[in-house]
Amino acid sequence: MRIAVLVSGGGTNLQAIIDSINDGRITNTQICLVYSNNPKAYAIERAKQAGIPFVVKSPKEFEDRADFNKALLQILKDANPDIIVLAGCLVVIPGEVVKAFEGRIINIHPSLIPSFCGTGYYGLKVHEKVLERGAKVSGATVHFVDEGTDTGPIILQKPVMVRDDDTPETLQRRIMEQAEWKIMPMAIDLLANNKVKVQGNKVIIEDYDRKVLESL
Ligand code: GRF
Prior knowledge:
alpha/beta, Rossmann fold, seven-stranded mixed sheet, about 25% strand, binds 5-O-phosphono-beta-D-ribofuranosylamine
């Protein structure tokens, strides 16, 4: 399976994917492209170090958003991925990309969807809202991308306990370590091995050791 990984920042999820391919936790998979909208993203350095082709193209290079959308679609079509992985990508994925890769785009969101998600819930804001609400548990979700924001079928989730002394930063870090870096690689491995079936808004994981899924 060929995957294109779309990033905007530090790229720790990208690193988790690279490491999991290297150590065999993800099988049958190659990263055909890393795309970043942000030329300063450390994720680009990670792609370079791993010898993965990368493209940097910012919407700021275009006068018109529609032109950027077209360029992004072309970049992705040229890379010819089976699956597009949004790993901390802050660019709103244009409708034409969602259509062209229908059912083949996945995203990692740092909360347990349907809590703390949707428009305006990204980055540290998610964790700030969790702490403001006094929630005792949060976590992460890998889901398919559809036309809505965080509304597509859920593939995997993992809970993480909130601590009384958490700051948005400490909660973010723990959710990455305990949840994101585990469920994203596992979701990719499931897809690469044809274990994921979508029935309406529900994902069924077929023919997979439940113990492995539950030991995450
Ligand atoms: C992660 O928290 C992810 O859930 C969110 O953006 C962050 C990306 O971090 N969508 P990184 O670039 O993978 O380090």
